[in-house]
């Protein structure tokens, strides 16, 4: 889905792995319903496709040392690939941590040279669609909005804000402030 498209791409036919792949998935937290739902989908797809999936969670975005240890565990386990859900600017030494094991960014845009590809959500659309809804359903009088895109350094926050701003441009919607959430340890 292109960041400016509003229609999803056609669904692909289900695939089944042609060999026994070993994949590690690292999440910031599984106490967050968003990441829990991503994990649910990954586990189901791994079972359906015949892939061995090893799950790790770090108990929060700020747990960089925990995720470094988990990356090392994945490498020692012999993972064929690592699905890394984390935050931006957290792993300046990612290439050294994973060697030649491919790293796939999951959800958040990490932008590391060591990553091979990103599987994520259309962050622009995640801001654009609620903005369009407000424009279409708001009365003609001005509507003040507090925009809370998530953590400032999380991949996608800037794109979400850009999408929301694009959707409400020229309307009666007024963004009074953008408030970022803190990256906290969840215990």
Describe this structure in words.
By secondary structure, the chain is α/β, with parallel strands linked by helices. The protein has helices at about 35-50, 65-75, 95-100, 125-135, 155-170; strands spanning about 20-25, 50-55, 80-85, 105, 115-120, 145-150, 175-180. The chain is built from 5 helices and 7 strands; from the N terminus they run βαβαβαββαβαβ. A 5-stranded parallel beta sheet has the order 2-1-3-4-5, sandwiched between helices. The chain has a two-stranded parallel sheet with strand order 6-7. Strand 3 (about 80-85), helix 3 and strand 4 form a beta-alpha-beta unit. The longest helix has 17 residues, at about 35-50. The protein is elongated, with a radius of gyration of 19 Å. The model is unreliable at about 1-5 (pLDDT under 50).
Layout of helices and strands:
Elements: E1 22-27, H1 33-49, E2 52-57, H2 64-77, E3 81-84, H3 94-98, E4 103-107, E5 115-120, H4 123-137, E6 143-151, H5 157-168, E7 173-181
Parallel strand pairs: 1-2, 1-3, 3-4, 4-5, 6-7
